[in-house]
Amino acid sequence: MNLFLDDYRTCPPGFTLARDVEECKLLLIEYDVNILSLDYDLGYGNPTGLDIASFIVNKQMYPNVIYLHTSSDAGRRAMYELLYMNKPDRTEVHNGPMPQELLEQIAQTSRIKQ
Question: GO biological process: any one (predicted)?
């Protein structure tokens, strides 16, 4: 499963959408996540993507690849530093969003599977 955490943006094809931290945690627990893409700001007063980063580190539930698609520079930096400093060798952490080519490849693969 590929997982996309965002309270506002449209979920890209080939991903499962989590609109809040609790939903994202449940999906991380229940499924083997290949690619995770995190937003930081999830609505005023709500837990943030940093809460998911902390959850991943504390539970050692790392996806294979993590992207940070947030527009919050401070949030991206905090998530990246926490994840990168604690990740296992097998996990890739990218300090930015997924490249368009990867999004297109995942969308194409998901259409073939349907």
Answer: cell division
Residue linked to tokens 């690849």: 65
Express each pLDDT in 10-62 by its tens digit.
999 999 999 999 999 999 999 999 999 999 999 999 999 999 999 999 999 99
Count of positions (residues) in the chain: 114
Domain extent for 61: 2-113
φ/ψ region of 14 (left if φ > 0, alpha if ψ in -120 to 50, else beta) reads left
* pTM for the full predicted model: 0.95
Task: Provide the CATH number for the domain around residue 21.
Answer: 3.40.50.2300
